[in-house]
Amino acid sequence: MKWKLSERSKRIRPSATFAVTALAKELKASGCPVLSFSAGEPDFASPPSAVTAARDAIDRGETHYTANSGVAELKRAVASYYKERFGLEYAASEIIASGGAKQVLYEAVQSLVDPGDEVLLFTPSWVSYVEQIRMAEGEPVVVDTTGSNFLPAPKAVRGALTGRTAGMIVNSPNNPTGAVYGRETLEMLAGVARERGLWIIYDEIYERLVYGAARHLNILQVAPDIRDRVIVVNGVSKAYSMTGWRIGYALGPREAISGMDDLQGHLASNPSSIAQWASVGAIEGAEADVERCRAEFERRRDILFGILSGIKGVKIVPPDGAFYAFFDVRGTGLPDDMEFCRRILEEKYVALVPGAAFFAPGFVRMSYACSEEDIRAGGARIKEFVESL
Ligand SMILES: Cc1ncc(COP(=O)(O)O)c(C=O)c1O
Prior knowledge:
The chain is of the alpha/beta class. The chain folds into two domains: 7-45 and 288-388, Aspartate Aminotransferase, domain 1 (Alpha-Beta Complex); 64-285, Type I PLP-dependent aspartate aminotransferase-like (Major domain) (Aspartate Aminotransferase, domain 2), CATH 3.40.640.10. The chain is built from 14 helices and 13 strands. It has helices at 7-11, 16-29, 48-59, 72-86, 101-112, 127-135, 154-159, 183-196, 219-222, 254-267, 273-285, 287-308, 337-348, 372-388; strands at residues 35-36, 95-98, 118-123, 139-144, 165-171, 199-203, 230-235, 248-251, 315-316, 324-328, 350-351, 353-354, 363-367. A seven-stranded mixed beta sheet has the order 2-8-7-6-5-3-4, sandwiched between helices. Helix 3 (48-59) packs across helix 11 (273-285) and helix 5 (101-112) packs across helix 10 (254-267). The protein is globular and about 60 Å long. Bound molecules: pyridoxal-5'-phosphate. Residues 40, 100-102, 126, 171, 175, 203, 205, 235, 237, 243, 248 line the site of pyridoxal-5'-phosphate (PLP). Pyridoxal-5'-phosphate binds at residues 40, 100-102, 126, 171, 175, 203, 205, 235, 237, 243, 248.
């Protein structure tokens, strides 16, 4: 049979980060000594408290459907965490757990965006926001931050507003740049939302991974009065090295969360019962593990930054958070970032992700969620490659 795929499905572009990982795997399988820096996940084991909680849940027979939006214990753990960490109060009806932050974001966008609605994004940005907005027949409007240290400039944000702007997606700490939005930036974005009546999806999935003098702020800590127009997105994937368990969550006004709950009811029902219990174990019992991983990422970041900032032709802003270095390769003499990534993979077996995947051509993303040995070897290969050009 000749399948006729829907126009909607044909509009979706596959994730460019997955494409590079696949090519690197192929080369590795054929025996090439590939070093891959394309991963978007921590390389640590999940915390023992999560694993034990999951085992206990299986032993207790917690293997059935749960409440659509998650078990009460997980919502309680999330609410206490937000109260303690950010001083924010959320009731159980204002929290939903889903199959990863990606699903949370999808549901938020589907619940908020009507055809033709414009949604501001600050680029470089994570790959899925644009596609998710398009899936809702909205219009992503990108505000470039490459000329302002990866922070949205007030003039650029205001210049992107139109009568059709419905909201914005804000991601701090940022994937791929590692930028952590400070008080001033968050106040500016909150001010725009307040003035123009916009909603904000605030994706803080990397909030535990900040380094040096940088401090992560939830946008509602600087602008508590806009609580009724913010959906906060977080999850256990990055902070607790639990990417495979697939638990993300959102906190927001009851009406918005209830729209997402209705959608989830027909899309997926509850996320895995066992993974929900594992997440309770992580949130309540893995503080020491989180800090250990954060400190290790900081050490690796310092090593990598030291190497990259010493390469002539490469420009890098010190990344304050997440686990990515995002650097400018326009001074290397190669025509673009795609060519840079293709050639360095083929000639030096180093897998990096082209900035074009994040709407920032001319840049390259390197994940440091890998061993120090790989970081040092990869850094040396990048130096050799750039110097050979
Ligand atoms: C900025 C950002 N948001 C959300 C996600 C999705 O996280 P999850 O694995 O929990 O779906 C990612 C994962 O790479 C991310 O980088």
